[in-house]
Design brief:
Blueprint: H1 2-14, H2 19-32, H3 37-47, H4 53-64, H5 81-87, H6 108-119, H7 121-125, H8 131-138
Residues 1-3, 81, 84-85, 90-91, 94, 96, 98, 107-109 line the site of iron/sulfur cluster.
């Protein structure tokens, strides 16, 4: 997963990464794998050179993970691989195929994303900003 490797390596080497890597790669991966938001928050706080708690805490607990139940953001920021492909140049060099949704070469973000939608479809159905995703999911074949 080159996008993830790039983002983590950059943080380890520089204590910094840009907004899309923070929100749509690292936090997205953390959300989609059901990581405890408090642990992600702690990791950001330790790893980032610009992590002042007054701004880092609400960004991670509110915007990045939706762990405040929607006080700060109106929807969880999650995505499959296509958004990462649009916002980075990693996918063309990754061993996974961002366009594949199934199979051993399919981008793991695609699997993780639809798994997450399935897990949370009841609450997603009640949120107008993400309810479309549950409708798309319901139309998918069993395969
Ligand atoms: S194909 Fe998937 S895992 Fe690979 S860089 Fe793109 S989004 Fe990341």
């Amino acid at each position: 997963m080159l996008c993830l490797k790039d983002a983590v390596t950059h943080v380890l080497n520089h204590g910094y990464s840009h907004h899309i890597q923070r929100l749509m790669v690292l936090s997205n991966f953390s959300n989609l794998t059901n990581t405890d938001p408090r642990q992600l928050n702690h990791w950001f706080w330790l790893a980032y050179i610009d992590a002042y708690e007054w701004v880092e805490l609400p960004n991670v607990i509110g915007m990045s993970t939706f762990a405040d139940g929607g006080i700060l953001a109106s929807k969880p920021y999650i995505s499959g691989g296509s958004y990462i492909n649009k916002m980075s140049n990693c996918c063309s060099q990754c061993k996974y195929d961002v366009k594949q949704k199934t199979g051993s070469c399919a981008c793991p973000f695609n699997y993780l994303y639809w798994n997450f939608v399935d897990q949370h479809r009841d609450s997603f159905a009640e949120n107008g900003r993400v309810s479309l995703m549950t409708n798309v999911y319901e139309k998918k074949s069993e395969d």
